[in-house]
Amino acid sequence: MSSPFDAPRTKAREALGLSVVKELKAKGYEALYVPSRKEALEEVLKLIPEKASVGVPGTVTIRDIGAMEKLAERGCTISHHWNPALSPEGRTQALLDEYNADYFLTSANAVTRDGKIVNVDGNGNRVSAMAWGRGTLIFVIGLNKVAATLDDAIARARTATPPNALRLNGDTPCVKTGYCVDCNSPARACRALLILERPTFGRKSHVIMVGEDLGY
Length: 216
Known about the structure:
Order of helices and strands: HEHEHHEHEEEHEEHHHEE
Helix content: 25-40%
Strand content: 15-25%
Shape: globular
Number of helices: 9
Number of strands: 10
Largest sheet: 6 strands, parallel
Structural class: alpha/beta
CATH class: Alpha Beta
Number of domains: 1
């Protein structure tokens, strides 16, 4: 059911998305704004050709928009270590295959209004591939990930840890509190912090900002 308040809300989200895109472009990213996850998926499929190899790390957003299924339909080879059928050796190989794919398709934990992209990682596979990888880098980022400042973005990035820990049946304090307590637990998932101030040298880097809440 529509509300008379929907149109102003949509306009405000569009204005925010376009403001962030402007900053990302100024920093050297190929960036654009789309209103919905459906259009985000369409843009992803424009960037990734049929039968390409695609690495998809631990990202709820990419699964939220239905990219895995559509890329598979196009004959793409998709590497992702979330496959529960993988052996420990197979998981290690999947992590390497993600890293070496033609396209690295991911999201971000946060992005500042002035275009800094922030991620917190446990294994380091995701942030290392964002910083230096062989293939084209594609971010799909919902507007729920936008933060005012870098400090806000780092704090926002840590809000992804409790739901991820719960998804993985983790035993960390944030599972009980629902928020990050900067713990010293052996199972701590917040271990590597990456702040991308610009795309790294020699890398095609795309950002698709989406006017919906996506991921954690």
